[in-house]
TrEMBL record, chain A:
Keywords: 3Fe-4S, Cell membrane, Iron, Iron-sulfur, Membrane, Metal-binding, Oxidoreductase. It comes from the Bacteria. This is Oxidoreductase. It comes from Thalassobaculum fulvum. InterPro entries: Hydrogenase_assoc-protein, NADH_UbQ_OxRdtase-like_20kDa, NiFe_Hase_small_N_sf. The keyword Iron-sulfur applies. The keyword Metal-binding applies. It holds the Pfam family Oxidored_q6. One of its GO terms (molecular function) is metal ion binding. Transmembrane segments: none annotated. Residues 18-154 form the NADH:ubiquinone oxidoreductase-like 20kDa subunit domain. Its cofactor is [3Fe-4S] cluster.
Automatic annotation (TrEMBL), chain B:
GO terms for molecular function: iron-sulfur cluster binding; metal ion binding. Keywords: Iron, Iron-sulfur, Metal-binding. Residues 254-286, 335-363 form the 4Fe-4S ferredoxin-type domain. This is 4Fe-4S ferredoxin. It comes from Thalassobaculum fulvum. Gene3D superfamilies: Alpha-helical ferredoxin.
Length: 260, 373
């Protein structure tokens, strides 16, 4: 055996989520072989068989905590992970399933399941960081595969990932997009939303839906006043802030300003 | 320096201007309609210009409207400025490759294609002059800016109307182009036809003009062109007293208006992204998965982000209040100390393109105490 330094071991874990974010890793197509070459993908139920016990240098965690069992399981993952990175809106903000945080989960279960007594679930959906220390959070619903590759590359190089926390507006302007809200009157969450998607929706003439959650130092109330001016009523305002990142504090507070 | 008598160019002459510029190897850039706005992009001929369009602008509001004539320059400035060509949003600086025991660093190539801008407004000429001062006028010259700026050919257009957020008269930057252009045009649309009064600013401008079909301007045409500019000057959508603004702001760094504006400000950075004089950038370092490649690029940054003032331990300007105050006092006050000029040219973009319509002229009035609040 020649040099072959041990490659960092990567594991991918899933909690309450749709799998879309971890599939972004498989979507990497062009970069996938490079990723597989750079790290030892030791645990990834979506792509490999069998699981390997032991220490993980990098744990990618998708999904939110919605059951007592998962609240325990994430502690195990943390215990075995040197670096823990949460990926996606579920893991970083509780996801769309955090709509339960605004309602009565027993009532939901009664409506959805024939035998709700089989369901053992928590009253809330919460981000991973509320349960264990997290080293880095990658935002998005779903995450951007380019940003995922960037996070892995940064981890390998021991540097900070380039994933700016500024608004989607900055991405629009860097792309040369005409502002859909100022020039077309289209309601847009871009000014309060974390960058990362490269302004996907505004680039196709639509307002931003806030998939990446609140940007740094957001001001959702001031934007709420503007959205109201553009014709949104209280119901619409509550809903626009209550989607994939409904439980992110800045969005939650603004949605609650417009109703229960 | 050429400064001959004004001449008249008809619409065919304008086509000839495009041809002459292309013949000389310029990449011709100018206003055109895209996504319901007037943007700056590559132009092939005057047919690409926004013929018969105008714009309606107010705080956080921009709409394209039809004019009842065929004016080619009957609008004011849009969401973009020439900065996107001279001081590009992203510039690749260098990339490095690891091979064997060494690392090879290669600078990314500088642009070499000369630019010709058609339709530069007076406020924009001043904005270019501001960036020239900042990026080329001191001990440290930005080679990337210089590579794009030197050799650029500027065709100015004098404004025939002011937009709803224009205040160039207050900032003494327009509406008539007085310096910094190779050629300047004033569009005339009257009973005598659609034509342009042309003035020359440089020898290169004079040489290009010599290739175009033109005739001397009649006295009535010179008077008509002056009237066009006067009409624009008399119709400014905004005004801002600027003679004392530096001292006014520096005396009021703790004014309660900064708290008020911070309540409304989204800290989204749009004002800085559309400002034609903003010049701040950050550098981004990236590395590949194999560790064999790395690259450095720079991109526009904004003083409204937390990273902008991040130093060891945290951001210096963590509140929106401090970030808005930094932006506005830099534009209107400390720019004078730093560069001996104002950082604001009165183009109104920061007002129009602020999603919530924060108005720099209104903020100044409020701090002065003779406005609302």
């Amino acid at each position: 055996m020649a040099e072959t330094a041990r490659k960092p071991r990567l594991g991918v874990w899933k909690f309450a989520s749709c799998d879309g974010c971890q599939l972004s890793l498989l979507d990497c197509e062009d970069e996938l072989l490079a990723v597989a070459g750079a790290v030892d993908i030791a645990y990834f139920p979506e792509a490999t068989r069998g699981d390997v016990k032991g220490r993980y240098d990098l744990a990618l965690v998708e999904g939110s905590i919605t059951t007592p069992h998962d609240a325990e399981r994430i502690r195990d993952v943390r215990r075995w992970a040197r670096t823990l990175v949460t990926i996606g809106a579920c893991a970083t903000a509780g996801g769309i399933q955090a709509l339960r945080n605004f309602a009565d989960v027993a009532e939901y279960a009664a409506v959805v399941y024939a035998r709700p007594d089989y369901i053992d679930t928590l009253a809330t959906s919460t981000p991973i960081a509320e349960h264990v220390p997290v080293d880095f959070e990658l935002r998005g619903c779903p995450i951007s595969k380019h940003q995922l590759v960037e996070v892995i590359a940064a981890f390998l190089a021991g540097r900070r990932p380039v994933t700016p926390a500024h608004s989607v507006c900055v991405e629009c302007k860097l792309r040369g997009n005409v502002c859909v809200t100022v020039a077309h009157g289209t309601p847009c969450l871009g000014p309060v939303t974390h960058a990362g998607c490269n302004a996907l929706c505004p680039s196709y003439d639509r307002g931003c839906y806030g998939c990446y959650g609140p940007k740094e130092t957001p001001n959702p109330a001031a934007l709420g006043d503007k959205l109201q001016e553009q014709g949104m009523d209280a119901d619409a305002l509550r809903r626009v802030y209550r989607t994939f990142n409904a439980a992110a504090p800045a969005f939650r507070e603004e949605s609650e300003r417009h109703g229960p | 320096m050429a400064n001959s008598e004004p001449v008249v160019l008809d619409v065919d002459g304008l086509s000839a201007l495009f041809e002459a510029l292309k013949r000389r190897g310029y990449r011709v850039v100018g206003p055109t309609v895209r996504d319901k706005a007037i943007v700056y992009d590559d132009l092939d001929s005057p047919a690409d210009l926004p013929e018969g369009w105008t714009d309606e602008q107010d705080g956080g509001h921009y709409r394209l409207l039809r004019r009842d004539d065929r004016a080619l320059f009957g609008y004011v400035v849009g969401p973009q400025s020439w900065r996107q060509f001279l001081h590009a949003p992203r510039v690749e600086l260098w990339h490095g490759t690891k091979s064997g025991d060494g690392v090879r660093i290669e600078a990314d190539p500088m642009p070499s294609e000369p630019l010709a801008f058609v339709g530069v407004r007076a406020c924009e000429l001043q904005a270019i002059a501001v960036q020239d001062r900042v990026l080329m006028g001191g001990a440290y010259v930005d080679p990337h800016y210089r590579a794009r700026r030197e050799g650029a050919f500027l065709v100015a257009v004098n404004c025939g109307r002011a937009g709803g957020t224009c205040f160039c008269v207050s900032m003494e930057t327009g509406p008539k182009a007085t310096a910094g252009f190779d050629l300047s045009l004033t569009e005339l649309l009257d009973g005598d036809g659609h034509r342009f009064l042309v003035e020359t600013g440089t020898d290169t401008g004079q040489a290009v003009l010599a290739e175009l079909p033109h005739r001397p301007a009649a006295a009535a045409e010179i008077a008509a062109a002056a009237a066009v500019v006067e009409r624009a000057a008399a119709s400014m959508g905004r005004e801002m007293r600027s003679d004392d603004v530096r001292d006014l702001l520096m005396r009021n760094l703790e004014h309660r208006r900064w708290d008020d504006v911070a309540d409304r400000c989204l800290s989204c950075g749009n004002c800085t992204m559309v400002c034609p004089t903003c010049f701040c950038t950050t550098v981004e370092e990236t590395s590949g998965l194999t560790g064999a490649e790395s690259a450095r690029s720079r991109r526009w940054d904004s003083c409204f982000t937390m990273d902008f003032s991040y130093i060891h331990g945290g951001s210096v300007r963590s509140s929106t209040r401090s970030r808005y105050r930094q932006w506005m006092t830099h534009k209107l006050a400390t720019w004078h100390d730093q560069f001996d000029m104002s950082g604001c040219v009165g183009c109104g973009r920061c007002i129009t393109w602020c999603p919530v319509g924060i108005d720099i002229t209104e903020e100044v009035r409020a701090i002065r105490g003779d406005g609302p609040n």
